[in-house]
Amino acid sequence: MKTIASPDHALHFPKAELSGGQLIRPYECPERWDYIVEALAASGFSAPQLPNALDMASVAKVHGADYLRFLEQAWSLWEAEGYEGEAMPMAVAARRMQQREPENINGKLGYFAGATETAITPTTWQAVQSSAACAQTAARLLNAGDSSAFALCRPPGHHAGYDLFGGYCFMNNAAIAAQELRDAGASKVAILDVDFHHGNGTQDIFYERNDVLFVSLHGNPGHAFPYFLGYADETGKGEGEGYNINYPMMPGTPYSVWSDALTHALDRIDQYFADALVVSLGVDTFERDPISFFKLTGDDFTRYGHAIGKRSLPTLFVMEGGYAVEEIGVNTRNVLQGFLDAQP
Ligand code: FKS
Ligand code: ZN
Fold it and tell me: Which residues of 160-198 are buried (b: 16+ CB within 10 A; e: fewer)?
């Protein structure tokens, strides 16, 4: 299994995240990437390869043109106002307010915000493009016949909607990968999101489509970020009805409960007869994750990687979250190793 990764990830490293009323060092930090690269090398995985330059064709099918223009211009508009800090949204387009993009950068930030903890820095846009390029290049490996690949994306992507950023995400890497697979001839693609948090952005992008099945296991939104999406009764709309499946779970959920949901999810993916599988891989389901509440152990990651591998689908893993930084490498490696060990 090849890994695609870019050192450009380090270009996105905001000094601050608004958390608990304080500006703290972000949980989503560059060392996460280093620990993963190190753990894969130590286990004999081949060295990461660089992505090709991002092709905007598939990106433009999952994100709006106005939104992409905003991401590209946000920092220069912010800088032009003479602000000293990093760009963060404050006022948001809440219920019963106009859904109209303002001229002012503070207005634009709020208009495109899905959450307000995520800052934009001078070099964020470059890191975001390279992260998406990793997913795209890895998807093209599958298109060329590889049976699996790992896109070591940073920043992550699954909270990025059609025209929304937040939750550390800007472009939806998994959605871009799924679109790449579709455009190369896969008629049906399944996305399995095992990050602790609901992939609200991915759900948003594919909610009215039946060519991409979205299945997510996550903390119940009544108790966990992103709070406003991810309930079990969200099943898709129009042509997409029946092609969105959520498994919200409660605080303290152990592997026994989580793995039953996974089996159910994988059965639904089998019944869909997908040509390829994209896994939004977050290891923040770990028992010692600082911001999450599931109770998976290190060995559980190997177990579920194996369960995914037994389904024998061409599979692309796309990195999402995981904040127990010193364990993120081993936990990620365990999923990929478990997967490989189940391959015929
Ligand atoms: C800490 C609150 C943190 C934001 C959580 C974002 C989770 C991001 C993620 C991703 F995969 F996108 F990285 N709230 N006080 O893990 O889902
Ligand atoms: Zn997460």
Answer: bbebbbbbbbbbbbbbbbbbbbbeeebebbbbbbbbbbb
Q: Ligand 2 centroid vs 219 CA: distance in angstroms? A: 9
pLDDT in tens, 5-24: 999 999 999 998 988 999 99
Distance (angstroms) between ligand 2 centre and the Cα of 84 equals: 29
Ligand nearest to the CA of 17: 1
DSSP state string for 163-216: TBBBTTBSS-HHHHHHHHHHHTT-S-EEEEE-SSS--HHHHHHHTT-SSEEEEE
Ligand 1 mutation target, pool 158, 164, 172, 193, most atoms within 8 A of CB: 158
CB-based burial label for 16 (10 Å; 0-12, 13-18, 19+): middle
Question: How many separate helices (H) and strands (E) can be counted in the chain?
Answer: 10, 9
Q: CA of 265: how far to CAs of 34, 159, 161, 190, 279, in Å?
A: 31, 20, 22, 11, 12
- Phi/psi for 309 (5° steps) reads -60, -30
Q: Distance between CA 316 and CA 225 in Å, rounded?
A: 25
Query: Catalytic residue positions?
Result: 159
Note the pTM of the prediction, 2 decimals.
0.98
Per-residue pLDDT tens for 95-116?
999 999 999 999 999 999 999 9
Residues less than 5 Å from ion ligand 2, measured at CB: 195-197, 282, 284, 321
Ligand nearest to the CA of 19: 1
Which residue is it, tokens 């937040």? Answer: 166
- Residues at CB less than 6 angstroms from ligand 1: 19-20, 28, 117, 156, 158-159, 167-169, 195, 197, 225, 282, 284, 291, 320-321
Asked if residues 294 and 287 have their Cβ atoms less than 8 Å apart, the reply is yes
* 344 pLDDT higher than 90: no
Kindly tell me if the per-residue pLDDT of 291 is higher than 90.
yes
- Residue whose Cα lies nearest atom 8 of ligand 1: it is 167
Are 276 and 316 in contact by the 8 Å Cβ rule? The answer is: yes
In which element (H, E) is residue 316 found?
Answer: strand 315-319
Q: Which residues pair with 17 in a beta bridge?
A: 24
